[in-house]
Amino acid sequence: MFLRVLILTTFVLVSAGVSIVNAQPPEELPDASTRSGRRSREDAPHGLREMMAKQKTERDKKDYQELLERGDEALRLASQLETSYEQNKGFSQADRLRLESLERTVAKIRKELGAEDDDAPAKDPAAPTVEAEPKPSNTEEAFSYLKSTTIKLVDELKKTTRFSVSVVAIQSSNTILKLVRFLRIRK
Lowest CB count within 10 Å: 10, 109, 113, 157, which one? Predict the structure, then answer.
């Protein structure tokens, strides 16, 4: 008899526990669009969204200013390389370092402009066309083309805004990189 009362009491307690759990409202599940279940940015308070937008604007302005500074640095390096070659009619170790620095700077500019592959032709048929790439026959011509193409790149960077992408600037940076590779081989 004691065993029956014990089984009956256990059954009643288990059923009461199950009914209490089922009677409570379900907890809200985390939003499936976020991994952590935190509120999305759209649910953020208005002041926080404004602050985030201002920070993004400031970051974009700073990035654009750095892009322009890189363009000026590339122009300075190209001018120094041309002047040095005209004076010495050859490459010095400092010129090789300047050439490498120019290549890194132009590659950064190109990446910030959104270019992916320098050998791929433009896929947009409506894209503006650039004059044919210069094909230097000697080192002196290559330095001349390097400086003029760098000037063209810097001018194009100054024409654009931080909201636009310039196909001409990307193509100019591709040309500069090809000229740098040509000069590295010809050294």
Answer: 10
Contact between 75 and 176 under an 8 Å Cβ cutoff? The reply is no
Amino acid identity of residue 166, one-letter, is S
d(CA 15, CA 12): 5
Structure tokens at 97: 């370092």
171, 130 in Cβ contact below 8 A?
A: yes
Query: Cα separations (Å) of 164 from 109, 157, 169?
Result: 14, 10, 11
Along the chain (187 residues), what's the average pLDDT of each consecutive run of 10 residues? Answer: 80 73 59 56 77 91 91 92 86 87 92 71 50 73 88 90 84 91 80
Place of tokens 């050859």: 90
* Per-domain residue ranges of the chain: 55-116+134-186
